[in-house]
Design goal:
By secondary structure, the chain is an alpha/beta fold. It folds into 2 domains: about 90 residues, Rossmann fold (3-Layer(aba) Sandwich), CATH 3.40.50; about 170 residues, Dihydrodipicolinate Reductase, domain 2 (2-Layer Sandwich), CATH 3.30.360.10. Helices cover about 25% and strands about 25% of the residues. The protein contains 6 helices and 11 strands. The strands form 2 sheets. Strands 4, 5, 6, 7, 8, 9, 10 and 11 form an 8-stranded mixed beta sheet that branches. The chain has a 3-stranded parallel beta sheet with strand order 1-2-3. β1, α2 and β2 form a beta-alpha-beta unit. It starts with 7 loop residues before the first helix and ends with a helix.
């Protein structure tokens, strides 16, 4: 609880990743700065810290921001995919569902004292519907999508790797094959290393240890018509997300060193 006693300054630690999920606001992270850190990167969504997702809006970062957030692992998966689709074809509105591995906040057995009854049920025995602001957060990263996305989660009995289902109504009529081609192009060019593309017959464990934020599964998606599609993208919600935290720190350092 007494973050100010951590000797960041003495240790020469300039960049601190706040990954406890407890100190997620600018005010709560001030103690890290008082202890000598120069920047604090919150590895969680934040109510007031500016959010940056690599490949989506990191160019909006300015050096005067001492506390910042890399949003959630789900937002890091969804945002690059939504960016490509919106820029190419226009998203009128969309719903997202994440099928998410269980998390530290869940219980191993049923706990009737939990304020959220469903979330209090045993994580390894159940598929549990839950709320998430991951889709709404995309609107903060891409202002043109503000109010156009919302979503929910299902927590499932797996320890790692999750998957996003983005069901979108598009402005421009387009075939599913054209959508796949646009995503593949971005994965090999502007979003290389962040967005990936696969047409293999994959399952969740195939992505354990994958560094990408989002791996689009071409064979899992479907198209109802040229304006209504369901897109599927996988993510290692631990390792891929951790890599983006490191990437953001590298970006901040490079911007400082080169004055960009």
């Amino acid at each position: 609880q007494e973050l100010v006693k951590i000797p960041w300054g003495q240790l020469g630690a300039e960049y601190v990743v706040e990954s406890t999920s407890v100190f997620t606001t600018i005010n709560k992270c001030q103690s890290h700065l008082q202890a000598g850190a120069k920047k604090v990167i919150i590895a969680a969504p934040s109510a007031d810290a500016p959010m940056f997702v690599m490949g989506v809006n990191e160019d909006k970062y300015t050096e005067n921001e001492a506390v910042l957030s890399i949003a959630s692992c789900t937002t890091n998966c969804l945002a690059p995919l939504a960016k490509v689709i919106h820029e190419k074809f226009g998203i009128i509105e969309a719903l997202m569902t994440t099928v998410h591995s269980y998390t530290p906040t869940q219980n191993t057995v049923d706990d009737p004292l939990n304020e959220n009854w469903r979330s209090g049920r045993g994580a390894v025995q159940n598929i549990i519907p839950s709320s998430t602001d991951a889709a709404k957060a995309v609107g903060k990263l891409i202002p043109d999508l503000n109010g156009k996305l919302t979503g929910m989660a299902f927590h499932v009995p797996t320890s790692n790797v999750s998957v996003v289902d983005l069901t979108a109504r598009l402005n421009k009529g387009v075939t599913y094959e054209e959508i796949c081609a646009a995503i593949k192009e971005a994965a090999n060019d502007s979003l290389k290393g962040i967005l990936a593309y696969t047409d293999d017959e994959v399952v969740s464990t195939d992505f354990i240890g994958d560094k990408h934020s989002s791996i689009f599964d071409a064979k899992a998606g479907i198209s109802h018509n040229d304006n209504f599609v369901k897109l599927v993208s996988w993510y290692d919600n631990e390792y891929g997300y951790s890599n983006r935290a490191i990437d953001l720190i590298k970006y901040i350092v490079e911007k400082k060193d080169y004055g960009r």
